[in-house]
Amino acid sequence: MKKLLLFTAVVLFAFTTAQSQELRIGFKAGVNFASIGGDFTDDYDGRTSFHIGGLVEIPISEKFAVQPELLYSSQGATSEYSDSFGGVTFTVEEKLKLDYINIPIMAKYYIIDGLAVEAGPQFGILVSAKGEYEASGGGDSESDEEDLKDVYNTLDIGFGLGGSYRLNNGVFFSARYVIGLSDVTNEDDFEGDFGPFDIEAFKQRNSVIQLSAGFSF
């Protein structure tokens, strides 16, 4: 992780030094439509949350630019199911909250003035992982929260693809899809929980659609 952060800092410094007169610095925020795919996720539903952070657009030529970002992104998944016990039906709502500091590095190509397509890798550092549930039925309800950070990997790697449109006044809008390339689960911890099961094939990956609005200058 330290090598990744050092590499990112060196790249940003080098580009900043070379292109300091043409940089665009900005901030963005928006909505996440997140989910988790892979093994044992058939009952997972999407989770709607948010992202917020800053960016630097570094022009390479008239048409090309590189845009590193630093985002706080709340992701994860939800599920809901019902069960009966003693003639009473209970409804259980579960929420998996995975919060990351994400570092996307997007290569941008401007089709026309203001309108760009973008693609590039994303590196995420897990800062919080919590499982919440609420069960209700028969006039009663109960809820609880559990820290799951040891169950999920600290580093998440993904790839983003999207587009953006910037107005002359600096306001911009963007849409991006980020597909996870790495397993979010910590196999060692899952192996301890599941005992004799073969956990080597147990893979889960993040997936998120991001709609953003921001300002750059």
Q: Describe it for me?
A:
Helices cover 12% and strands 65% of the residues. By secondary structure, it is mainly beta. Strand 7 and strand 8 form a beta hairpin. It is elongated, with a radius of gyration of 20 Å. About 4% of the residues have low confidence.
Cα end-to-end separation: 31 Å
Helix content: 10-25%
Which residue ranges are poorly predicted, with pLDDT under 50 across at least 5 consecutive positions?
191-199
Average pLDDT works out at: 87
Helix/strand layout:
Elements lengths: L1 H18 L4 E15 L8 E13 L4 E22 L2 E25 L2 E23 L2 E8 L7 E12 L4 E10 L6 H8 L9 E13 L1
Antiparallel strand pairs: 1-2, 1-9, 2-3, 3-4, 4-5, 5-6, 5-7, 7-8, 8-9
What's the quick description here?
The chain is mainly beta.
Give the key terms.
single chain; 8-stranded antiparallel barrel; Porin; 12% helix; 9 strands; 217 residues; mainly beta
